[in-house]
Specification:
It is found in: Membrane. This protein is of the alpha/beta class. 47% of the residues lie in helices and 11% in strands.
Length: 579
């Protein structure tokens, strides 16, 4: 593909006009009385009574309407005169290489270059290198006598060389590991096509087809040493063509001396400091991308053919959560990590629940209580507490509904089991726990890891508990919970963040005036990259509905609220038995 070639994606416009035009004329004409010429052409039918002709016309119109409906919804192949109808098999559009289909759905930012990157390394190979590398080293060093070799010296070398061997292996695999597949061909444009490198040292090092490591790019971009040509999101769509997903020395330095110590320590005081530093930055800062609802979690798409607003996506999610909980008036609800209290106000106002939200961020608590009051609710109906959920003065099993929407990431791997155990204790034996948590794919790509380290450093420090679904489920079951339903909703997150990005871009002057260019760029990279990685599956979100796994749990009472993201029970539809 040349530099000037662009991928064209089918449009619905011409087909919609066809539906409204030619087809509409056909359908309308069936309701009219046939002309003399039409009757003469009908032959024997010309003498049929007009009421019978009308009946036949009505049936023809119904059949045509049903046919159009089947075509639009993908249940039938469109006739050739429909032209380039989205979803038709004969007019699909493909990415460069002709093997991966492109889409154009209004709900999301559609991919233009859905290429795969260099994938994960083999853990067995790494383990063998760490275990046998020191033994081989002891054998080949000239001045080491075989008689000196023993278990003590061997384990000493394993401990001493394990980390350097792992670093060398990770670096080599990130630099020389093959892409998972090459079904999508890269445009192979020079780096100057995408980036304007202002720093002379970087410009000399990275030019032409010499790709820049992603970590070096985003650090230089934040420092205004590099600008992008066009919108950052569009440039990031083509990142495989200009960026290398290499593990750099700075990434290893961050992992060894910042991230790992945080994971191992992860104290309550550390949680409080990091959360307040992030969420107490300023309500205006967060509102400039979250919008007036102030919800920092994924919304839910219900119509892929329409660009639902951010407010619609979030209302879809709030209603869905209440539905999965089977929320009723008087239910005692705990929202752990409630943010700005939007769910608490929503559940109390629309479902009559008694809701308590807890957060460690002072500004969030103040904002949430003001929102509750503004919605005509008293503190007896809903309230936001600025405290640790473990310090709430209630008896064991007090709450019959508990919600945690993307708060557990901040708990940390070290305290994950303890967190779930505490939730279990707070929940009534017949209660329901709705757990929404960000997650990662186990078959990761190097881009996933580099993005995750960026997120840990700049966006959510200390949030180290984004893990694979099987790990999360195992932790929940070991804590005594039973999974009622589980949905993987990463693509919904991509749509949500797409709306956040649009808000952020609209508020660019305000953000830069108050918070500066660097923070503006950090958040622009965060939002742009997150749209892509959530769409691609590298990062996701899991929405899991749980009950206690006890013999006495009344599971039958959860049947009516047992649904997935878009439950379609087809109530009122009649069926014919086949037995």
């Amino acid at each position: 593909m040349t530099e000037n070639e662009k991928v064209s994606i089918p449009e619905l416009g011409s087909n919609q006009s066809y539906l409204n035009g030619e087809l509409g004329m056909r359908m309308t004409s069936t309701t009219n009385e046939p002309s003399a010429s039409d009757r003469s052409g009908l032959g024997a039918v010309a003498n049929v009574p007009s009421d019978e002709i009308q009946l036949r016309d009505d049936r023809a119109r119904e059949k045509l309407a049903a046919r159009v409906n089947d075509i639009v919804h993908g249940d039938a192949e469109p006739p050739k005169q429909f032209g380039n109808l989205a979803g038709s098999s004969d007019k699909k559009t493909y990415a460069p290489g002709g093997k991966v289909r492109l889409t154009k759905y209004a709900a999301i930012k559609n991919a233009v270059l859905p290429a795969e990157g260099n994938g994960s390394f083999n853990n067995i190979h790494l383990a063998l290198l760490i275990l046998f590398g020191p033994a081989i080293l002891l054998r080949v060093i000239p001045f080491v006598k075989p008689s000196w070799f023993g278990w003590v010296s061997y384990f000493f070398l394993v401990a001493l060389l394990g980390v350097p061997i792992a670093i060398a292996y990770w670096t080599a695999m990130s630099m020389y590991g093959a892409r998972i597949n090459e079904k999508v061909q890269l445009p192979n444009r020079p780096i100057e096509y995408y980036l304007d490198i202002k720093d002379p040292v970087l410009a000399q090092k990275y030019s032409g087809h010499n790709k820049i490591p992603m970590e070096i790019f985003y650090e230089a971009y934040f420092d205004q040493k590099i600008d992008v040509k066009g919108e950052l999101l569009d440039v990031m769509e083509y990142r495989w063509d200009w960026a290398a997903m290499h593990f750099t020395p700075n990434l290893f330095k961050y992992v060894l001396f910042k991230m790992l110590p945080d994971v191992l320590l992860h104290s309550a005081r550390q949680d409080e400091e990091q959360i307040r530093d992030n969420y107490d930055r300023g309500n205006d800062f967060h509102e400039w991308f979250l919008g007036p609802q102030m919800i920092y979690t994924s919304g839910i798409v219900t119509d892929i053919h329409r660009e639902e607003t951010l407010e619609e996506l979030q209302d879809n999610k709030l209603n869905l959560v209440c539905s999965k909980l089977g929320l009723k008036p008087g239910d005692r609800v705990l929202d752990i990590g409630c943010g700005w209290g939007t769910f608490a106000a929503f559940a109390a106002k629309n479902y009559g629940a008694d809701v308590t939200g807890v957060t460690l961020a002072r500004e969030q608590a103040e904002f949430g209580n003001a929102r509750i009051k503004a919605n005509g609710l008293s503190s007896d109906q809903a309230r936001i507490l600025c405290m640790d959920y473990r310090d709430i003065p209630v008896q064991r099993g007090y709450y019959n509904k508990i919600v945690s929407l993307e708060m557990a990431e901040h708990v940390g791997i070290r305290h994950y089991s303890k967190f779930l155990s505490n939730v279990y204790d707070l929940l009534d034996d017949d209660g329901v726990f709705l757990f929404q948590v960000a997650g990662l794919r186990p078959r990761w790509q190097y881009w996933d890891l580099i993005w995750g380290l960026f997120m840990n450093k700049y966006i959510f420090p200390g949030a180290d508990a984004s893990c694979a679904l099987n790990w999360v489920i195992a932790k929940l079951e070991n804590a005594g919970f039973e999974v009622r339903s589980c949905d993987v909703a990463g693509i919904h997150y991509s749509a949500t963040i797409d709306r956040w990005l649009k808000n952020w871009l609209k508020n660019e002057p305000k953000v830069k005036a108050k918070y500066g260019e660097s923070l503006w760029r950090i958040w622009l990279f965060f939002l742009s990259s997150s749209i892509l990685i959530a769409r691609e599956g590298g990062s996701s979100v899991f929405q899991i509905t749980l009950t206690k796994n006890l013999n006495a749990t009344h599971r039958i009472e959860g049947v009516e609220s047992h649904g997935n993201l878009l439950p379609r029970p087809n109530k009122g539809k009649t069926y014919s038995s086949v037995y």
